[in-house]
Design a protein that fits this description.
Layout: H1 12-18, H2 22-26, H3 29-36, E1 41-43, E2 48-51, H4 54-62, E3 66-67, H5 71-77, H6 85-90, H7 101-110, H8 115-119, H9 122-139, E4 146-147, H10 148-153, H11 155-165, H12 172-183, H13 192-218, H14 224-234, H15 241-254, H16 256-272, H17 274-282, H18 286-297, E5 303-308, E6 312-314, E7 317-319, E8 324-328, H19 329-332, H20 367-384, E9 389-390, E10 395-396, E11 405-407, E12 409-411
The chain binds protoporphyrin IX containing FE.
Length: 414
């Protein structure tokens, strides 16, 4: 790591390099501050801008001249990417598309994620939560440790999205394994073996989706898969075959680990400060601010990227066409110009609007759903297990883009 002579903090360039290491990823926040010490948008290497400021990230996300990496862009800059099915499938989804395709793809699925539609799911999510808590109680009866992530935080999001899409319940454990393997493809090209596993998982999932789509053609249900298959069959111009697969894939995977990490962090922070657990149990309105502050303080998505399709500028810095921008949302959420005392976890913070779900055209489609799941799961968890306690320190998954707890063993002594 390169350091300035006599200084203890790395340079922005050194901090950037450290983010690619296991050690750097374990605690990236000091590295974000090292980048910030050289500016809110720092040029690192030719044609590369790393953005850590809140206002700068917000503006970049809303700037229509800054595009997401789509298939054409991969073709131009990443030879061989089409050999990886895990990358190919995502480029047929809204997340990796720019207008006009993006607008079309987002509209096709968007109707199911509006705040009123999501509010209708409340009682179903409450029931799923209770069932999972029953299961945790059964697993922990003999005093044995239960992994909060594997048994609760990751099961709830998969159960919820599977129900919306219309996936059979018995396939959910398999989905979690596949979705975890696939998620690596969004974390860059660093690990060739992991990318290969992601490709294999993607192939299996695509075959599964194709089979399910055929079943729904023959036997339609009142679910999102049936709706999407019908949209494709009625008008393939509106939703092509690969786009149907890409949409299913992104809906299943985008909200799984992210929401699981949100719930995992929410549980960890409340166990570290028991007063928070007590407030979750006793103050019904407390959870709204609590979830927003977890999102700010420990966002499940640390970083996203854009590239400049045309010349633009960002807070006075010229951004020539072709520049690649890395937008560190987790650093923006700790920008002292926007958040007072940003390193302090404060669920009573007013005007808390973190960038954890992005902003602009690609603003997270599932934000109302993720919020609702966490708002239900966390108070229920602490109400059901007032004696909840960590039996070992949690372990972070070694990833940077989507970051959170891999395992968190707890005792559920009621
Ligand atoms: C705490 C949980 C979640 C976090 C932190 C999160 C974060 C994000 C972020 C930052 C983006 C924007 C990426 C960008 O602009 O480059 C995004 C997009 C997206 N998210 Fe989420 N997400 C979460 C949960 C969900 C859930 C539950 C779903 C759906 C089931 C979902 C579906 C999507 C989709 C479809 C997009 C793409 C939107 C578009 O490109 O127009 N997310 N998410």
């Amino acid at each position: 790591m390169s350091r300035r002579p006599g200084a203890t903090a790395p340079t922005a360039e050194g901090a950037w390099a450290a983010l690619a290491t296991v050690r750097g990823r374990q605690d990236p926040y000091p590295l974000y501050e090292a980048i910030r010490s050289e500016g809110q948008a720092v040029r690192i290497g030719p044609g590369k801008l790393v953005v850590v400021g809140y206002e700068e990230c917000d503006r970049a996300l809303r700037d229509t001249r800054l595009h997401v990496q789509d298939a054409a862009r991969y073709d131009a800059g990443t030879p061989g990417w089409r050999e990886h099915s895990s990358l190919r499938a995502f480029t047929s989804s809204m997340l990796y598309s720019n207008p006009p395709d993006h607008t079309r793809l987002r509209t096709v699925a968007g109707f199911a994620f509006t705040p009123p539609r999501i509010r209708e799911l409340r009682s179903a999510i409450e029931e799923m939560t209770e069932r999972l808590l029953d299961r945790m109680a059964a697993l922990g009866t003999a005093g044995s440790a239960v992994d909060l992530i594997a048994e609760f935080a990751s099961r709830l999001p998969v159960a919820v999205i599977s129900t919306m899409l219309g996936f059979p319940e018995q396939d959910q454990v398999w989905f979690r394994e596949m979705a975890s393997a696939i998620a690596v493809s969004t974390d860059g090209f660093r690990d060739a073996a992991a990318l290969e596993r992601a490709d294999r998982a993607m192939d299996e999932m695509t075959a599964y989706f194709a089979h399910l789509a055929d079943r729904r053609r023959r036997d339609p249900h009142d679910d999102l898969v049936t709706h999407l298959v019908r949209t494709h069959d009625d008008d393939p111009e509106r939703l092509g075959h690969d786009e149907l697969m890409g949409t299913l894939m992104v809906l299943l995977t985008a909200g799984f680990e992210t929401t699981s990490f949100l719930i995992g962090h929410g549980a960890l922070l409340a166990l570290e400060q028991p007063v928070l657990a007590e407030r979750l149990r006793t103050e019904p309105d407390f959870v709204t601010g609590y979830v927003e502050e977890i999102l700010r303080f420990e966002p499940p998505v640390h970083v996203t990227s854009r590239w400049a399709a045309a010349d633009t500028e960002l807070a006075g810095t010229a951004v020539p066409a072709g520049t690649r921008l890395t937008l560190i949302l987790a650093a923006a959420n700790r920008d002292a110009r926007r958040f007072a005392d940003p390193g302090r976890f404060d669920p009573d913070r007013s005007g808390n609007r973190p960038l954890s779900f992005g902003a602009g055209g690609h603003f997270c489609l599932g934000a109302p759903l993720a919020r609702l799941e966490a708002q239900i799961a966390l108070p229920r968890l602490f109400a059901r297990f007032p004696g909840l306690a960590a039996t070992e320190p949690p372990l972070y998954r070694d990833r940077w883009v989507v970051r959170g707890l891999d395992t968190f063993p707890v005792a559920v002594t009621a």
